Amino acid sequence: xxxxxxxxxxxxxxxxxxxxxxxxxxxxxxxxxxxxxxxxxxxxxxxxxxxxxxxxxxxxxxxxxxxxxxxxxxxxxxxxxxxxxxxxxxxxxxxxxxxxxxxxxxxxxxxxxxxxxxxxxxxxxxxxxxxxxxxxxxxxxxxxxxxxxxxxxxxxxxxxxxxxxxxxxxxxxxxxxxxxxxxxxxxxxxxxxxxxxxxxxxxxxxxxxxxxxxxxxxxxxxxxxxxxxxxxxxxxxxxxxxxxxxxxxxxxxxxxxxxxxxxxxxxxxxxxxxxxxxxxxxxxxxxxxxxxxxxxxxxxxxx
Length: 303
Ligand SMILES: Cc1cc2nc3c(=O)[nH]c(=O)nc-3n(C[C@H](O)[C@H](O)[C@H](O)COP(=O)(O)OP(=O)(O)OC[C@H]3O[C@@H](n4cnc5c(N)ncnc54)[C@H](O)[C@@H]3O)c2cc1C
Hints:
Blueprint: E1 2-7, H1 11-22, E2 27-31, H2 56-69, E3 73-76, E4 79-85, E5 89-94, E6 99-107, E7 111-113, H3 121-124, E8 129-130, H4 133-136, E9 144-148, H5 152-162, E10 167-171, H6 181-188, E11 193-196, E12 199-205, E13 212-217, E14 223-226, E15 230-233, E16 237-239, E17 250-251, E18 254-255, E19 268-270, H7 282-302
Parallel strand pairs: 1-2, 1-6, 2-3, 6-19, 8-15, 9-10, 9-15, 10-11
Antiparallel strand pairs: 4-5, 5-6, 7-16, 12-13, 13-14, 17-18
Helix pairs in contact: 1-2, 1-7, 5-6
The structure holds flavin-adenine dinucleotide.
């Protein structure tokens, strides 16, 4: 039986592995795809403290090498279920058909951003199309951007970007926003923020970088084009928690866990973007990894 099994080799899972190994724990990380998580999709990270600039790919490589050099075993196999108890240990079942047991489990399976599902979206991701205003907003200082979405995240992103860029269009498919009234009011008074409703994005223009978007009015199907340097898609995230819904308590699809990264099940911990929290960033994912690993170590040693 391993000491700790970690599901997910993203920033949270690999950070947890570093802390678990440094505490002398026999640590296994199961990754269903490639190591590194979401961050491998971005060419530039500029907001990780003490690293002024790094590509997402290099960040992931450094993190992976650090964890494996410390002795973490990373296996490329998806976790399909977790069962068991704190008293008897936990069994992790794998996509390959195998299984492994551990005294504690850390769930660090992350989330994915919902995509628009239109042509050229993948091609232009990182070249004008972004899913994270906090991550990429600073690259658009003095430029024109659009935010797409109608919930709190979209309106918050638009307000945040209005403080950085020349002009923000907030595009939503309905005339009414789902976001809190106070947020919508705060957005409406900003002189450089223009609400564009009820419109959907039909086409992305520009090569090799985004330079415009074509919109369709949902009432009369008329179209118009906006010249933009960036498009921030904020139409929701999907935490990868379907397989854990009968194991731990979920809230809005995310695994419920406080700053101590404990779930409602003793011996099972949660770290990173998949945890209920407000800020989903590298720093908070790595911090969660540290907290979850040390909490798991305490649980193993002290019960
Ligand atoms: C395009 C883009 C740019 C970004 N830029 C920045 C930035 O500049 N700065 C910043 O701070 N943040 C940025 N972020 C956010 C940052 O990447 C995330 O906050 C961070 O990656 C979350 O880490 P995580 O480990 O919690 O989850 P993830 O990165 O989502 O990693 C989870 C891992 O778990 C694996 N997994 C999922 N299900 C299973 C399973 N059942 N079994 C095994 N493995 C599984 C996944 O394959 C993945 O590797 C960006 C995100 C995106 C998408």
